[in-house]
Amino acid sequence: MAASKKRDTPAGNEIQPRSGNGSQHPAILEFSKDQELRALRDMLLIRRFEEKAGQLYGMGAIGGFCHLYIGQEAIVVGMQMTLKQGDQVITGYRDHGHMLACGMDPKGVMAELTGRHGGYSKGKGGSMHMFSKEKNFYGGHGIVGAQVSLGTGLAFANRYHGNDLVSLAYFGDGASNQGQVYESFNMAQLWKLPVIYVIENNRYAMGTSVQRSSAQTDFSRRGVSFNIPGEQVDGMDVRAVKAAGDKAVAHCRAGNGPYILEMQTYRYRGHSMSDPAKYRTREEVDKVRSDQDPIEQVRQRLLALKVGEQELKAIDAEVREIVNGAAEFAQHDPEPEPAELYTDVYR
């Protein structure tokens, strides 16, 4: 067991992005105080929401699968800062953070987790299957890699309609080895589709380190044979994410085709709530959390900008109140009527 654990643990804990496919890694943006405050609040909302979801799962209020996004918050928050109204987002089943970053109501998201009528899919989709046409969020998807093909299709629709909208297709290091991902890459580059492939590389997929599962561990180079540019990004720094996202979005809006961003990140919890994560050491998790936590980085910068501790605590208190309200709603909202079993079904 000890030998297996040693093989699974990557060498070193530091996330050290390097440019892929010959591209230069952009300089980290300096955020204004307002941008830092926005980033802090948005990431705290995701963090506190996921912590509460974990609690409700432990209480039995949430059933089925539940995949938490704790540790990866800077990716969706930074990328969302690069988008404009109408741009689309699609992702896999670790999706609560993406929904909240898109502006979906925490009450509706939490109620879907608990299977209540007020959820975004009327309580019938659960953690993995929520959508919001209003917020241009095209779902979390339970089939590994399926969202990549669908996100490419969204980009095809944008090109067909002649607009300058961009679609973001999020997927992980594990899904990166799916065949449909490469078919999508080929089509997207052939037709110059405006899609950004955001690879959230948390280094363990479902529980196997990338060193053991992937022959090419520089995921930014996965598009080389299709002539798709890509780069690695420090996915724990919201400023680095936005800088890279700005570059990728500009590339797509200009009609230059797809772009790959490998976000080097780290999840603090297991793959799902049922995963004890014994394939990595507690020391490794603690080191990343203490040295690179995306929220703490922003907090320290705000303190350096002379924002007081009390103001930061007030933001956290406001976020906790929102999340507690969502949890309260999600536990008392009625369950869907039995007749709902027959709605929204293709027959």
Brief summary:
The protein has 347 residues and is α/β, with parallel strands linked by helices. 43% of the residues lie in helices and 8% in strands.
What is the secondary structure topology, with strand pairs?
Elements (H helix, E strand, L loop, with lengths): L1 H7 L24 H27 L13 H8 L7 E3 L5 H6 L4 H8 L32 H16 L5 E6 L6 H12 L4 E7 L8 H4 L16 E5 L3 H16 L5 E6 L17 H11 L1 H11 L4 H24 L15
Parallel strand pairs: 1-2, 2-3, 3-5, 4-5
If you had to describe this structure to a student in words, what would you say it looks like?
This protein has 347 residues and is an alpha/beta fold. It is built from twelve helices and five strands. A five-stranded parallel sheet has the order 1-2-3-5-4, sandwiched between helices. The protein is globular.
Element pattern in H and E: HHHEHHHEHEHEHEHHH
Count the DSSP helices: 12
Low-confidence segments, given as residue ranges, are 1-13
- Give the distance, in angstroms, between the N- and C-terminal Cα atoms: 50 Å
Mean pLDDT: 92
Adjacency order of strands in the biggest sheet: 1-2-3-5-4
Percent in helix = 40-55%
Instruction: Note the beta-strand portion.
Output: 5-15%
As a whole number of angstroms, the C-alpha radius of gyration is 20 Å
What class, by secondary structure content? Answer: alpha/beta
Instruction: Please give the number of β-strands.
Output: 5
